[in-house]
């Protein structure tokens, strides 16, 4: 239970002869749980509104001596003073009622448990054992349906198993606000269905599968794959975004078969998104790197032994001018490894975790504001107003969306979205949509009415608009509103804390602060650390291309995510590149040494979510031969002769905690002035884009069922532009500049007249690669 | 001397009874004029004083229901008239609306004034196209005559054919455009009804009774009926009876008296069993001919007054067959929301079919009764309860007949004999 500012009134009730004190408003079924009395239930779910449909939780209730004439559904009735409850344990009437309902539930339920995915972990199976009759009196005909029905490419429905508890439809309506599934028909033929003309494309549909109390909803990817009692479950954390979901990974014979949302009331409650749930096949993808590769004299990458590869890597780095590029998938421990490796083994501060469009303004924002940020989900719960700045919660941090949505539903939380285009999430959040031209976000933020109870949630895309982060800081300082920086990738906040940035040492210590360097040098057992701020990602690429740097260690970075990616690849090609990677990427093609690393399920570690909250996890697959980045870096460092002494994740974690906190000065922020939006005329438009949750991301590889529910690639323009171009929905639009062009079907929506929006990394649309631009630049938009 | 007290049905025999002219000829729309000049609270008090109780079946005091609407809350209030009359045997509201739609329109005007509603809805079952047309015409004429409009609107909404939408909260869901399924209570409609606003849901006959009470006063109304069941009401007689139809009489009249007025059971036959208030009320036999048909009298005898739908069955009728037909109706109409009703009716039908065909043993009767016990009072709304009433009551009164099906290896009755078509028994 979360702490609240208001004192909660407690009510005493008697359940089966035992007194219990519970907060006013607690439902009887929940009060009974406090006493360890489990009342059977199906439709009841603590995070959904009560419905009282299944009638399984009937109990006898009297209030101040007045008994209800018939048993009541304990999932719908809040406790009252003077209430005496008799459950199945003490009331023969309640017991018979429950057994009767159980018998009825089984009337139309098939006895196919031996082939049902839910068998072995099924609330119906379990409660039929605890509450049912040993033998059925039903001798008639059960209803049958054609099976299964595809609710979407990733969710299948076996209607005959459904007990019509409506958890799935209520989840979709109340939690995800994607009311695309609903109950149809009536009586025993009532069934879950989807709209005929609208696909069920919810980002959260897996939760409906998880909370289904029978085997009616199954995930396409897991269906018929395993028996639950053959799985080994490991508590884990999600590697897909910075929301920080608690997870459970189920493994059979070293292979991950499914992942479920874990239970963490402070973060993801009991939910997660479909990407977190189903995108894990990249770990077992056929193109997974399994052995070290070294580029030989013939210019070809060839398999090599580990000692050979480590030696080759060390030889290419030792005594050279080297840098480190580490991507957002790194765990805290791995990022710490890269950070320490750069400083000790390479003697440089040239390290950056940002594999995207960045700016020095953002680096300063991170060094001064993000490292010390204490903004959490609880601040959203308490906020009077949440401003979303260059941040699409549903696409970029889905659990943040669910939390916002919960508060919008519960107490009409005011949400403002400063964005170029109206999104589905903004509509669902009933957000005040401040429509801006790409590049003009700052002025709209200044215009918002914020207080010291407000929260500004700013996304990583804010770095694409010069001066926007400066405005975020000035607005926050003026109004007292808290800032929450929500990057897209799971490892970014951890990389900040690990010092994987040119201006930061671990723990948010400024590189240029001598005392900070002494702190770290002492723990690391070295005489000194490089004292000047290093290069950023783009500066590293530039230095590689001009020859100011000789070599680079690249971990978890795809050059195609970098601006001017062709130049970046060319620069890498000129240099000595050591690549630590899970699967081949654009970097592999130009790497000199390729070292395969462990995926998240194969190692232990932790992430820091956007709040800075640690999300530790253990290895789910115990017998993987793949090593963590940190172990490999340690080997290279040993070979170079500048040991970093980080053999294991545990060692790294222990060392990180021994660093203590930094109470010295933070880096100072140098404000940058805004430039505003470019002006356009004629066919010109300002490009704007963001990544969708489901796209061409490499960690979604191999999961076609998931990809089947991704949103279609479209080019969004305003009604007036559509009219000017003579274009209607579905007509092809060509977006082009001097670099290249992208052609997509048009969609007319609420977007700034000067703007054209396209998805950033979806099928047929990778503007960073095709146009070398993602936000704010002038492109030409014509009917194709 | 006749016991009939025609008020609602006083002019049904006039050719143009459904027109606004006929209605006005007999003093129509005078009561609303009077009521609109009264303080709303005084209207509520008058209805309270009259003792009028809900004619939809439950018998809740109408004035008290109106009094539950919070006043001065700055919210829109709504009156919703339940005209979704769909229960087997129940046929009072549709004839009333066919013959005299304006009395409902006038009742709506008065009731809405009392509860401070600016908009009222009539939710009518979808199958009765002819009644819908009449009511639409009546509403149109009332607008033209200025009784509607001017700040008060009346909307007729046609249902899509679901018995469950007669349940007031399912009706509200349906009216809002959702699937008709009963809502969790609380909140009750008086607090959060239609569009989450304070709402009164009344039966057609309850609202139609209001103009006469306003016109003639509470004392006049109180002078009819019994101690706790005041006034007169429509009894609908159907089945094996000489002159079926609607009989408007004071509450407390007996079936024996009504049968006399209707010319008795069809000639050559005698009463076997009957329903006092539609198919969801436990059946009675000839032993109950003198039970006073008011809320208390019927209840004391083990059934419910319900909608006063007196379905008469003579000795040619197989009770198992009749009960099976009703049960099939409930299975077809179960909305599916709750387990006991949804699965229970599915199962009940199968057991009853077997019994009718002579399959099974006496133990199946116990199973049937136990099953009814697991449905009755366990389902979400009263539909499930109602489904069990004919079964439990028929086994109580006619257990031997059930057993006869088993020993006979099938139904011992000639079903053709119970049909009422001309020449069916030739």
UniProtKB/TrEMBL annotation, chain A:
SUPFAM superfamilies: 2Fe-2S ferredoxin-like, 4Fe-4S ferredoxins, ADC-like, Formate dehydrogenase/DMSO reductase, domains 1-3. Keywords: 2Fe-2S, 4Fe-4S, Iron, Iron-sulfur, Metal-binding, NAD, Quinone, Translocase. The keyword Manganese does not apply. Its cofactor is [4Fe-4S] cluster; [2Fe-2S] cluster. InterPro entries: 2Fe-2S_ferredoxin-like_sf, 2Fe-2S_ferredoxin-type, Asp_de-COase-like_dom_sf, MoPterin_dinucl-bd_dom, Mopterin_OxRdtase, Mopterin_OxRdtase_4Fe-4S_dom, NADH_UbQ_OxRdtase_75kDa_su_CS, NADH_UbQ_OxRdtase_ferredoxin. Residues 93-132 form the 4Fe-4S His(Cys)3-ligated-type domain. CDD domains: fer2 (cd00207). The keyword Translocase applies. One of its GO terms (cellular component) is membrane. Residues 9-91 form the 2Fe-2S ferredoxin-type domain. One of its GO terms (molecular function) is metal ion binding. GO terms for biological process: ATP synthesis coupled electron transport. Residues 231-287 form the 4Fe-4S Mo/W bis-MGD-type domain. Belongs to the complex I 75 kDa subunit family. This is Unannotated protein.
From TrEMBL, chain B:
InterPro entries: NADH-UbQ_OxRdtase_51kDa_CS (IPR001949), NADH-UbQ_OxRdtase_suF (IPR011537), Nuo51_FMN-bd (IPR011538), Nuo51_FMN-bd_sf (IPR037225), Nuop51_4Fe4S-bd (IPR019575), Nuop51_4Fe4S-bd_sf (IPR037207), Soluble_ligand-bd (IPR019554). It catalyses: a quinone + NADH + 5 H(+)(in) = a quinol + NAD(+) + 4 H(+)(out). GO terms for molecular function: 4 iron, 4 sulfur cluster binding; FMN binding; metal ion binding; NAD binding; NADH dehydrogenase (ubiquinone) activity; quinone binding. The keyword Phosphoprotein does not apply. Its cofactor is FMN; [4Fe-4S] cluster. SUPFAM superfamilies: Nqo1 FMN-binding domain-like, Nqo1 middle domain-like, Nqo1C-terminal domain-like. Pfam families: Complex1_51K, NADH_4Fe-4S, SLBB. PANTHER family: NADH-QUINONE OXIDOREDUCTASE SUBUNIT F. Belongs to the complex I 51 kDa subunit family. This is Unannotated protein.
């Amino acid at each position: 239970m979360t702490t609240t500012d208001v004192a909660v009134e407690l009510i005493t009730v008697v359940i089966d002869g035992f007194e219990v004190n519970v907060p006013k408003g607690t439902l009887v079924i929940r009060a009974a749980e406090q006493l360890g009395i489990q009342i059977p239930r199906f439709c009841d779910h603590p995070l959904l509104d009560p419905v009282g449909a299944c009638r399984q939780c009937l109990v006898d209730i009297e209030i101040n001596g007045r008994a209800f004439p018939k048993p009541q559904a304990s999932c719908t009735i809040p406790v009252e003073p003077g209430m005496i409850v008799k459950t199945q344990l003490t009331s023969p009437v309640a017991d018979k009622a429950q057994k009767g309902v159980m018998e009825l539930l089984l009337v139309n339920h098939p006895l196919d448990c031996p082939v049902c995915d839910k068998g072995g972990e099924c609330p119906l199976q379990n409660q039929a054992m605890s509450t049912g009759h040993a033998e059925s009196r039903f001798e008639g005909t059960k209803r049958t349906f054609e099976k299964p029905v595809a609710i979407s490419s990733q969710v299948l429905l076996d209607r005959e198993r459904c007990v019509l508890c409506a958890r799935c439809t209520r989840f979709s309506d109340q939690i995800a606000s994607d009311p695309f599934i609903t109950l149809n028909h009536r009586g025993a033929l009532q069934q879950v269905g989807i709209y005929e003309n609208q696909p069920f494309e919810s980002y959260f549909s897996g939760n409906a599968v998880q909370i289904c109390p029978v085997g009616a909803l199954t995930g396409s990817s897991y269906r018929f794959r395993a028996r639950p009692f053959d799985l080994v479950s490991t508590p884990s954390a999600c590697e897909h975004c910075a929301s920080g979901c608690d997870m459970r990974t189920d493994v059979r014979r070293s292979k991950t078969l499914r992942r479920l949302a874990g239970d963490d009331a402070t973060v993801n409650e009991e939910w997660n998104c479909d990407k977190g749930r189903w995108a894990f096949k990249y770990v077992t993808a056929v193109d997974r790197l399994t052995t070290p590769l070294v580029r030989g004299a013939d210019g070809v990458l060839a398999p090599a032994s580990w000692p050979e590869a480590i030696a080759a890597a060390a030889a290419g780095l030792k005594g050279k001018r080297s840098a480190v590029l580490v991507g957002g998938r790194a765990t805290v421990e791995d990022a710490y490894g890269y950070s320490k490796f750069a400083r000790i083994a390479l003697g440089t501060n040239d390290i950056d975790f940002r594999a995207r469009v960045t700016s020095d303004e953002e680096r300063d924002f991170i060094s001064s504001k993000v490292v010390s940020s204490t903004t959490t989900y609880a601040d959203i719960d308490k906020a009077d107003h949440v401003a979303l700045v260059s941040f699409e919660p549903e696409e970029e941090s889905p659990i943040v969306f669910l939390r916002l949505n919960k508060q919008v539903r519960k107490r009409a939380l005011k949400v403002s979205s400063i964005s170029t285009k109206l999104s589905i999430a903004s509509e669902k959040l009933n957000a005040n949509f401040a429509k801006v031209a790409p590049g003009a976000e700052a002025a709209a933020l200044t215009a918002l009415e914020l207080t010291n109870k407000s929260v500004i949630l700013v996304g990583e895309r804010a770095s694409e608009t010069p001066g926007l982060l400066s405005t975020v800081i000035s607005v926050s300082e003026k109004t007292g509103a808290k800032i929450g920086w929500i990057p897209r990738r799971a490892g970014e906040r951890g990389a900040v804390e690990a010092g994987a940035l040119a201006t930061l040492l671990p723990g948010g210590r400024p590189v240029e602060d001598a005392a900070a360097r002494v702190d770290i040098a002492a723990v690391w057992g070295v005489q000194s650390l490089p004292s000047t701020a290093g290069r950023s990602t783009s500066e590293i690429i530039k230095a590689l291309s001009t020859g100011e740097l000789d070599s680079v260690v690249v971990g978890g970075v795809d050059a195609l995510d970098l601006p001017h990616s062709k130049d970046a690849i060319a620069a890498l090609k000129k240099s000595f590149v050591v690549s630590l990677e899970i699967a081949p990427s654009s970097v592999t093609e130009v790497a000199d040494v390729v070292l395969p690393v462990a995926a998240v399920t194969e190692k232990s570690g932790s992430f820091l979510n956007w709040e800075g909250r640690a999300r530790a996890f253990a290895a789910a697959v115990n017998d993987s031969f793949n090593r963590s980045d940190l172990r490999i870096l340690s080997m290279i460092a040993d070979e170079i002769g500048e040991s970093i002494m980080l053999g294991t994740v545990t060692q790294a974690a222990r060392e990180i905690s021994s660093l203590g906190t930094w109470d010295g000065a933070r880096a100072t922020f140098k404000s940058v002035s805004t430039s505003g939006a470019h002006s356009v005329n004629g066919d010109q438009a300002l490009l704007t884009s963001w990544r969708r949750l489901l796209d061409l991301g490499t960690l979604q590889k191999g999961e076609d069922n998931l990809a089947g529910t991704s949103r279609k690639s479209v080019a969004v323009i305003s009604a007036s532009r559509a009219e000017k171009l003579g274009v209607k929905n579905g007509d092809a639009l060509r977006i082009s500049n001097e670099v290249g062009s992208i052609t997509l079907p048009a969609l007319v929506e609420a977007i700034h007249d000067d703007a054209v929006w396209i998805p950033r990394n979806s099928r047929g649309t990778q503007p960073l690669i095709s146009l070398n631009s993602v936000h704010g630049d002038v492109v030409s938009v014509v009917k194709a | 001397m006749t016991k009939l007290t025609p008020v609602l049905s006083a002019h049904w025999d006039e050719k143009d009874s459904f027109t606004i002219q006929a209605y006005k000829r007999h003093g129509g729309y005078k009561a609303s004029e009077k009521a609109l000049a009264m303080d709303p609270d005084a209207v509520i008090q008058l209805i309270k004083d009259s003792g009028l109780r809900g004619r939809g079946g439950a018998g809740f005091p109408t004035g008290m229901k109106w009094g539950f609407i919070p006043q001065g809350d700055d919210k829109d209030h709504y009156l919703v008239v339940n005209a979704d009359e769909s229960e087997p045997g129940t046929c009072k509201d549709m004839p009333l609306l066919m013959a005299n739609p304006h009395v409902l329109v006038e009742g709506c005007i008065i009731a809405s004034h009392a509860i401070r509603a600016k908009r009222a809805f009539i939710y009518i079952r979808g199958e009765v196209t002819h009644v819908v047309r009449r009511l639409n015409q009546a509403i149109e004429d009332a607008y033209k005559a200025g009784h509607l409009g001017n700040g008060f609107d009346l909307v007729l909404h046609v249902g899509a054919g679901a018995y469950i939408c007669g349940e007031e909260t399912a009706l509200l869901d349906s009216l809002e455009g959702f699937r008709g399924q009963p809502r969790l209570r609380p909140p009750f409609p008086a607090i959060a009804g239609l569009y989450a606003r304070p709402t009164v849901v009344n039966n057609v006959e309850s609202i139609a009774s209001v103009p006469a009470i306003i016109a003639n006063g509470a004392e006049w109304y109180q002078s009819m009926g019994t101690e706790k069941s005041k006034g007169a009401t429509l009894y609908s007689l159907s089945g094996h009876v000489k002159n079926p139809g609607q009989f408007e009489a004071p509450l407390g009249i007996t079936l024996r008296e009504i049968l006399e007025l209707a010319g008795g059971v069809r000639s050559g036959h005698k009463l076997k069993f009957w329903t006092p208030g539609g198919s969801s009320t436990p059946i009675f036999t000839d032993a109950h001919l003198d039970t006073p048909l008011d809320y208390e009298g019927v209840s004391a005898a083990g059934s419910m007054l319900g909608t006063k739908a007196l379905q008469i069955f003579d000795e040619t009728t197989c009770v198992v067959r009749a009960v099976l037909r009703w049960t099939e109706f409930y299975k077809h109409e179960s909305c599916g929301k709750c387990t006991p009703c949804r699965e229970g009716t599915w199962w009940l039908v199968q057991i009853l079919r077997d019994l009718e065909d002579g399959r099974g043993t006496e133990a199946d009767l116990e199973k049937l009764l136990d099953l009814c016990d697991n449905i009755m009072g366990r389902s979400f709304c009263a539909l499930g309860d109602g489904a069990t009433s004919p079964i439990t009551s028929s086994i109580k009164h006619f257990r031997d007949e059930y057993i006869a099906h088993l020993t006979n290896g099938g139904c011992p009755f000639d079903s053709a004999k119970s049909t009422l078509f001309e020449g069916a028994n030739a």
